[in-house]
Automatic annotation (TrEMBL), chains A, B:
The lineage of its organism: Archaea, Methanobacteriati, Methanobacteriota, Stenosarchaea group, Halobacteria. NADP(+) binds at residues 181-184, 204-205, 269-271, 298-300. Its EC number is 1.1.1.47. InterPro entries: ADH-like_N (IPR013154), Glc_1-DH_arc (IPR026583), Glu_dehyd_C (IPR031640), GroES-like_sf (IPR011032), NAD(P)-bd_dom_sf (IPR036291). GO terms for biological process: non-phosphorylated glucose catabolic process. It comes from the Archaea. PANTHER family: GLUCOSE 1-DEHYDROGENASE, ZINC-TYPE ALCOHOL DEHYDROGENASE-LIKE PROTEIN C1198.01-RELATED. Residues 25-139 form the Alcohol dehydrogenase-like N-terminal domain. Keywords: Carbohydrate metabolism, Metal-binding, NAD, NADP, Nucleotide-binding, Oxidoreductase, Zinc. It comes from Haloarcula pellucida. Its cofactor is Zn(2+). This is Glucose 1-dehydrogenase. It catalyses: D-glucose + NAD(+) = D-glucono-1,5-lactone + NADH + H(+); D-glucose + NADP(+) = D-glucono-1,5-lactone + NADPH + H(+).
Length: 354, 354
């Protein structure tokens, strides 16, 4: 079968011809429909994550997938059922308390594989196998957009963790701000628009720009961080009750605290490299305490968040989902899907349709 | 009546002779038993908080108090009832949503007075008045230790806010660490000892030292931060599930994140001044995200936390409470109560006994 992967010697995605996988006990075989490309894939290609599957000279890419059950293999799934796979898997031959509890997203470094990212093949192939417990059913009508379930699930988890921090008191938030105008940022901006009175999205682009168009179509305010730094948002616009960071730009973690309104919370999702810089650590600390602020880091998601994400996806307008998909590539020519310029929002590799 | 206060021209606590206050509608008159001294009082004396009561040339000190209702004034309290006052009050002639909801601890800067700290007289006087809603009844048996209710309430709130952040998943913490070996730190160390398997307390003192004696009597491990910095605790001892910071030393806010175990939470309570220093902001951000960590700032407390604190105080051993009180001063000679050296843990000014 055809698969898109990276090899130890290569530095870009390649079309591989490999054997179709056989489902093991408890696994189903899935025929792939579509797989999304995101920033993590570009990092994998650049070699930032490493960790090829044991004994392999290549790793299949892709972790945002939707497919159709081809062989239920006695798992209780039905042939033809549309499913979305989760990402984290037990390391080979091991399990641990996080997987046993159904919360692999809470497993620490080294206690998980991530399909298409570290230690396990991804989904960018004509077929893939997965334990049935990690295949989340989705309606046929959403098959085309099912690749958005994984990124939306990341925000479902982030929101759950962030809002839980404000449970002990009567929190009445009005404003939310998303740092980052990639596809995850724009999906999140729509989600926050359902809950918050006023939303903002921070990027560093000139008009005309397709992401700024989406931001404005969503009724949000675009903030150009080259003109207004994140900690200046309260002065330039208003203080923000919920900050959602999806840039991986380390100063944003600090600036987020200063952009928050009293009693606000910031969710951090980016994963920067080590980077020393000077901060006013006293004011950061002081501001967190005197205004009951909170910073919560969150990574990955689990089955429950995928289920929430499917409900969310159902409510999202088609114009938004269609507008986010800027490239649909064939496996035989994936180059356009890995172009990462300002015209690209979400690229998709399409293996098949329903 | 006698009162201990600071004056605009003075730089140390003075014995003042002032008029006994008259309770307004909804207020009771309380005869003061004991008032504790803490770090905030020293900051008030040094002029760090400012904000004298309007039109006054002095401010009565003290916010950790216990007293007896002298005149219920039709509020429903009973004469002779032992009560502990909360600290935050509505600014003169104003109210706001936070007070209306019973959550004045969530009011932002400028939307509250704090008795004995900013804008309103404290409790270090023979009598004080207070709205009855802010007088929390406590058993007579605890009258002697009632001054500990306010600091314990601060930790009740911090723990509530910190543990709420871990509610979305199955958190199974084992270890807790208190940064700071003052009386608040030691009270908290006992509290955390009831919930966690292993506890640590960080200070910077040589043995013999009365606080290290208390730490060890509590079965906790003393960590000298001059030898083991906070971010080295995981290597020197073990990673910590719950970090509680009560030092106001700004680098501790950053180091706390590195001392945490995966999925851990740090509560920040200290209030440092602005202070620029270099941090590895990339690793800080990365560590928060990849290990689902959280930092939550918390200040003050409200009536519910005072009620929790009274339950907690009831369970605390007398040896601990007696051991923490290192000075009991008379209003006529308060100098020993404001000595702030390594032999002092909690100083008390005693106006009367039951």
């Amino acid at each position: 079968m055809k698969a898109i992967g990276v090899t130890r010697d290569g530095d870009e995605p390649e079309l591989l011809e490999i054997e179709r996988p056989e489902p093991a006990d408890g696994e189903a075989l899935v025929r792939t429909l579509r797989v999304g490309v995101d920033g993590t894939d570009h990092e994998v290609i650049a070699g930032a994550h490493g960790g090829y599957p044991e004994g392999e000279d290549y790793m299949i890419l892709g972790h945002e997938a939707v497919g159709v059950v081809a062989d239920p293999n006695g798992t209780g799934l039905e042939e033809g059922q549309v499913v979305v796979p989760t990402v984290r898997r037990k390391p080979d031959g091991e399990t641990n308390e996080y997987f046993r509890r159904g919360e692999p997203d809470m497993a620490p470094d080294g206690e998980y594989f991530e399909r298409g990212i570290v230690g396990a093949h991804g989904y960018m192939a004509e077929y893939f196998t997965s334990p049935a417990d990690y295949l989340v059913p989705i309606s046929e009508d959403l098959a085309e957009y099912g690749l958005f379930v994984e990124p939306i699930s990341i925000t479902e988890k982030a929101n759950e963790h962030a809002f839980a921090t404000r449970e002990p008191f009567e929190w009445r938030p009005e404003t939310a701000c998303v740092l980052g105008n990639g596809s995850l940022g724009l999906l999140t901006l729509w989600m926050l628009g359902q809950q918050f009175d006023r939303t903002y999205c921070v990027g560093r682009r000139d008009r005309p720009d397709p992401t700024i168009d989406v931001i404005e179509e969503l009724g949000a305010t675009y903030v150009d961080s080259r003109q207004t730094s994140v900690d200046e948002i309260p002065e330039a616009h208003e203080a923000i009750d919920y900050m959602y960071e999806a840039t991986g730009f380390a100063p944003h973690a600090i600036e987020t605290v200063h952009a928050l309104a009293p009693n606000g919370v910031g969710a951090l999702l980016g994963i920067p490299e080590p980077w020393d810089f000077e901060v006013d650590g006293g004011s950061l600390h002081n501001e967190l305490v005197l205004h009951n602020k909170c910073l919560v880091g969150t990574v990955n998601s689990h089955v429950k968040h995928f289920e929430y994400a499917i409900d969310t996806l159902e409510d999202m307008p088609e114009w938004l989902l269609d507008g986010l998909i800027t490239t649909v590539a064939e496996p035989e020519n994936v180059t356009p899907a890995f172009v990462d310029d300002d015209d690209q929002i979400k690229a998709v590799v399409e293996f098949d349709t329903l």
